[in-house]
């Protein structure tokens, strides 16, 4: 009975399939034929426009119009924009400042009538006025290293300042001269002069190496300062611990007690005849060569000034035991001797950087 029912269902299904094919088959074939015929006339899809992005020109950014168009053309080439479309892209992306200028500069023409090359030439000629090389040279000679400015930053400003000076073949030498003139650290300047570099890059390499060494030494000195004792040694007055003092067994020439020297003696006695042995090291207890951790610069406020009398008139002068002679200005000389006659001097003077100082 089950087999008879299955055979009956299969027969009914076959009859339904045949009926459906007979009813909708011609319609499906007709629609397919129409689609094939109309597909030949459908136009091909347009290629997608290449992506492009470029910010507009702003005069307050400090860049020239020529530089802007150079970067604009690089962006167009990277995006594979055809040259025939350069003008259209420029008018869309270059911003209101340049578009407004172009509108009035090409009148009575319309901006869209101007080709790209002419558009660029007109805008560059209007915005990028030629700078006076003498004025730029004067500005260049005033560029000096600022406080907390690295040498690399200083050199970048130098190169920017020399861009319109038209030094040509003398650019390398002028950069060296101005870098030496404007360096804040004069010892770096002296070191570069001593090495006599032949190119600016050689001079810059020396300056950068010395600056790096100075920065490392400064960091090390900061570490030393944090490890130093907060008070002076009571055996000699030096900046170290009492346990490290080399005068622990020295005999004081003031109170004749051991353990300190007369320089820091707290006894009521005073002995003005202090021997050299007491202010130096006792033989056998200290080496001839001692370690020097730091050298401190003496601030200008601590200069030793003394009163000197010249022809009965008092004059305050700086005490400098290392100078072979003292120099006064012409105005100071007139205040001391109103009527004087200068004689020719055979002495020649120079500053610590080697510059000649003329004497009257």
UniProtKB/TrEMBL annotation:
Q: Does the keyword Nucleotidyltransferase apply?
A: yes
Gene Ontology molecular function, alphabetical: endonuclease activity; nucleic acid binding; nucleotidyltransferase activity; zinc ion binding
Q: Which residues form a coiled coil?
A: none
Pinpoint the CCHC-type domain residues: 232-247, 251-267
Q: Which SUPFAM superfamilies match?
A: Acid proteases
Q: Which UniProt keywords apply?
A: Endonuclease, Hydrolase, Nuclease, Nucleotidyltransferase, Transferase
Tell me which InterPro entries the record gives.
Answer: Peptidase_aspartic_dom_sf, Retrovirus_Pol_polyprotein, Znf_CCHC
Top-level taxon in the UniProt lineage: Eukaryota
What is the protein's given name? CCHC-type domain-containing protein
| Source organism (scientific name) | Anopheles quadriannulatus (Mosquito)
């Amino acid at each position: 009975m089950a087999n008879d029912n299955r055979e009956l269902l299969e027969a009914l299904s076959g009859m339904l399939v045949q009926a459906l094919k007979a009813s909708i088959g011609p319609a499906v074939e007709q629609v397919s034929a129409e689609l094939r015929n109309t597909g030949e006339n459908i136009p091909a899809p347009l290629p997608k426009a290449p992506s492009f992005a470029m910010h507009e020109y702003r005069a307050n950014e400090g860049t020239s119009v020529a530089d802007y168009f150079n970067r604009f053309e690089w962006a167009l080439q990277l995006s594979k924009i055809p040259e025939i479309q350069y003008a259209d892209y420029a008018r869309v992306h270059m911003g209101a400042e340049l578009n407004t200028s172009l509108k009035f500069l090409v009148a009575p023409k319309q901006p869209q009538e101007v080709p790209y090359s002419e558009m660029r030439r007109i805008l560059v000629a209007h915005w990028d006025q030629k700078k006076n090389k003498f004025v730029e040279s004067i500005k260049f000679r005033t560029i000096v290293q600022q406080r907390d400015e690295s040498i690399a930053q200083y050199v970048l400003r130098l190169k920017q300042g020399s861009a319109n000076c038209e030094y040509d073949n003398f650019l390398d030498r002028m950069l060296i001269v101005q870098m030496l003139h404007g360096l804040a650290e004069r010892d770096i300047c002296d070191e570069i002069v001593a090495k006599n570099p032949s190119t600016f890059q050689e001079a810059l390499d020396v300056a950068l190496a010395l600056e790096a060494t100075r920065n490392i030494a400064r960091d090390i000195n900061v570490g030393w300062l944090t490890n130093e004792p907060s008070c002076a040694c009571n055996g000699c007055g030096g900046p170290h611990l009492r346990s490290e003092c080399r005068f622990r067994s020295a005999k004081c020439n003031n109170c004749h007690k051991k353990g300190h020297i007369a320089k820091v003696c707290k006894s009521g006695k005073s002995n003005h005849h202090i021997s050299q042995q007491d202010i130096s090291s006792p033989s056998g207890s200290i080496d001839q060569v001692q370690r020097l951790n730091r050298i401190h610069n003496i601030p200008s406020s601590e200069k030793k000034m003394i009163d000197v009398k010249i022809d009965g008139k008092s004059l305050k002068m700086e005490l400098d035991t290392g100078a072979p002679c003292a120099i006064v200005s012409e105005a100071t000389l007139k205040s001391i001797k109103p009527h004087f006659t200068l004689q020719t001097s055979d002495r020649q003077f120079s500053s610590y950087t080697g510059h000649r100082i003329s004497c009257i």
